[in-house]
Amino acid sequence: MPNDATSPDWPEPRSAYLHVPFCRHRCGYCNFSVIADRDDLVARFLSAIDRELALLATDHGPPRIETLFVGGGTPTHLTIDQLHQFMRIIGRRFDIGGLVEWSMEANPEDISDDKLALLAGYGVNRISLGVQSFNDRKLAILERSHRGDATAELIHRVADVIANVSIDLIFAAPGESLADWQRDLQIASSLPITHVSTYALTFEKGTTFWTRRNRGDLLTVDESDEIAMYDLGRQQFADAGLQHYEISSFAKPGFRCRHNLAYWRGDGWYAAGPGAAAFLGGKRTMNHRSTTTYLKRIEQGDSAIAETETLDWEQAAREQAGFGVRMIDGVDLDQVRQATAVDIVALCGRELDQLEAGGLIHRRASHIQLTARGVHFADTVAAEFFG
Ligand code: SF4
User: Fold this and answer.
1) Which of 2, 56, 76, 204 could link 106 by a cystine bridge, Cβ 3.0 to 4.6 Å?
2) What is the dihedral of CA 109, 115, 119, 121, to 10 degrees?
3) CA pair distance 7, 100, nearest whole angstrom
4) Mutation test residue for ligand 1: of 20, 24, 26, the one with most atoms within 8 Å of CB
5) For the segment 149-186, what is each residue's pLDDT rounded down to a tens digit?
6) DSSP letters along 143-182, please?
């Protein structure tokens, strides 16, 4: 369906994502846009992202945002001085007076009391910690350099300064048993966290884990064990008062990640940094993933964008339904129709019937929701809407 005069307007973005690509080393499973052991590039990166963000300003000034997520890489890998500089850039390039959620990703080995105080001083009000596990053996397999005990203790210290603490946990690591995972879940549940994201380990092409698995050096966890681990997480976090609200996400009441909700609703967002993906006015762009290419292009006065895709309203509606169905509360297809002027029921009627007949979704009027069985097939269900 082409965009035309009768189409709704794309929403004004109120969110931004900034990507800081630096890490101490590259973990074997990581497929993010990351550059390891190149701290010599940080100064150039800060100048480049400043220049990139300057382009967002209009006659009305810098864009006004309500949620900001600074991810990576490891943003807290920057030194104190570099973090000050970065925070000042953010304050100059965005209107952050109405910011309600400012998340910063951090790694346990890089976050010090000084850095925490600095972040809190600039207004960061949510920390997303890359914990992955509290089990030293599993952390070593994942090539993470922090220790489980120290991380549990660190989470208390972080929560004393910035109370809204989210952690990421990985399950189905090579050699991991259900009992191992249960210990991770029990420790996580005992800590002062507001939010958890859990991910089954994936073996991405191009990573050393991919090569090692194909050589037989890394044993994968059985699919049935992986499902049992996922269900154990759901049970454990429900018992701990963390509501399962999206396929991989759990939150205490009032602590759902507003930034991610904006992504999943397709609200639009600014983005900057290597590999960062923006969605503005129906256009999806992705920057060059290589940090050195990103730097060179910006320093030469060229655009950092490597790929552009323009969505029409039908694609936008399909995405809203596909991401929306991953929400545990489900999605109202009538609301999607109101936002996009596209009727998903008319477009995907046969798929909806099949998903319902297969016991993967419930339907009540225009509202659809994954069934208990469908939660395990969320990607398959979502793919039916993407067409
Ligand atoms: S710390 Fe995170 S972003 Fe950095 S290499 Fe490891 S998994 Fe990737």
Assistant:
1) 76
2) 160
3) 30
4) 26
5) 999 999 999 999 999 999 999 999 999 999 999 999 99
6) T--S-HHHHHHHHHHHHHHSS-EEEEEEES-TT--HHHHH
DSSP code, position 17: E
Residue type, 190: S
Please work out whether the CB of residue 185 comes within 6 Å of at least one atom of ligand 1: no
pLDDT at 8: 83
Q: What pLDDT is attached to residue 6?
A: 63
CB 165 within 8 A of CB 129: yes
Query: Does residue 257's CB lie within 6 angstroms of at least one atom of ligand 1?
Result: no
Q: In ligand 1, which atom is closest to the CA atom of 25?
A: 5
289 with 135: CB under 8 angstroms?
A: no
Single-letter residue type at 151: T
**Each residue's pLDDT tens digit, 283-310:** 999 999 999 999 999 999 999 999 999 9
> In the block, which residue shows the tokens 């890089």?
110
On the question of pLDDT at 86 being above 60, the answer is: yes
Computed on alpha carbons and rounded to an integer, the radius of gyration of the chain in Å comes to: 21
324 lines ligand 1 (CB under 6 A): no
Domains and CATH numbers, the chain: 15-264 (3.80.30.20), 313-386 (1.10.10.920)
Query: What does residue 364 show for φ and ψ, rounded to 5 degrees?
Result: -130, 110
Scan for tokens 């992705």, then name that residue. Answer: 286
